[in-house]
Amino acid sequence: MNSFELKGIKKRFGPLEVLAGIDASFNSSSVTAILGPSGCGKTTLLNIIAGILEPDEGSLTGFPFASYSYSFQEPRLLPWLSSMDNLLFALSGLKDKAVVLERAARFLKSAGLEDFGDAKPFGLSGGMKRRLSLARAFAYPSDILLLDEAFSSVDLKLRIELMDLFSLLWREEKRTAIFVTHDIQDALYLADQILVLASRPSKLLDRLDVPIARESRRYASKELIELEERLYRQILS
């Protein structure tokens, strides 16, 4: 059953038309990839979903009543806080302190950083910072998790490690997750559905379900080739 829906979402910035009427539905506890070329309005759409931006036209169902956590391309960690304290800060709005401590410790461990709880960001490698940022986003018990190019601008090995960490953390609570990417293989590796946006002004070119069980997926595996070809045809047409 669709818990969240967009209808006719339009957005302009002055004379620049960015979104030209986006319709989309998102199942609760599913992972959706918003796929499209750089500059097509993916982040703008994500910010409208989060309530950071208002659409010029259109409606959002379910989203205005949801809580959110956000993971960005840059880790955006608080440099004066330790790894554990970065997680605790993200959870500071929760009243039950026992729950706060449990969630912080659990997600720090899931990210493989339990031995670095006292380390501040300058003492972590780039990959560790990215893992901590992802764990922080998951630690807050939001209704919806939004990710803006959270797996990009890193080498292939680290990208796969980050996506595997995402899958591990997602399986713990199966949060409704929406992430934007320009990488077809990343979308196929993680998503239950893929929304393909055209170049600006963006319209929805295609919606693709990924019927392959998540535990059976492999990065660039032959099981995904037909779906990959369909996406390439849409994007390159």
Give a written overview of the molecule.
The chain has 237 residues and is α/β, with parallel strands linked by helices. The protein folds into two domains: 2-67 and 142-236, P-loop containing nucleotide triphosphate hydrolases (Rossmann fold), CATH 3.40.50; 80-135, no CATH class. The protein is built from seven helices and nine strands; from the N terminus they run βββαββαααβαβαββα. It has helices spanning 42-50, 83-90, 97-110, 126-139, 156-173, 184-190, 225-236, and strands at 2-13, 16-27, 31-35, 57-61, 68-71, 144-148, 176-181, 193-197, 204-209. It has a six-stranded mixed beta sheet with strand order 5-6-7-3-8-9, with helices on both faces. The chain starts with a strand and ends with a helix.
Short description:
By secondary structure, this protein is of the alpha/beta class. The protein is 35% helix and 25% strand. It folds into 2 domains: 2-67 and 142-236, Rossmann fold; 80-135, no CATH class.
Q: Residue ranges: pLDDT <50 for 5 or more in a row? A: none
The largest β sheet comes out as:
6 strands, mixed
Percent range of helical residues: 25-40%
Query: What is the residue-mean pLDDT, rounded to a whole number?
Result: 91
Q: End-to-end span in angstroms? A: 32 Å
C-alpha Rg, in Å?
Answer: 18 Å
Q: How many β strands by DSSP?
A: 9
> What is the element string, with H for helices and E for strands?
EEEHEEHHHEHEHEEH
Q: In CATH, what is the homologous superfamily of the largest domain?
A: P-loop containing nucleotide triphosphate hydrolases
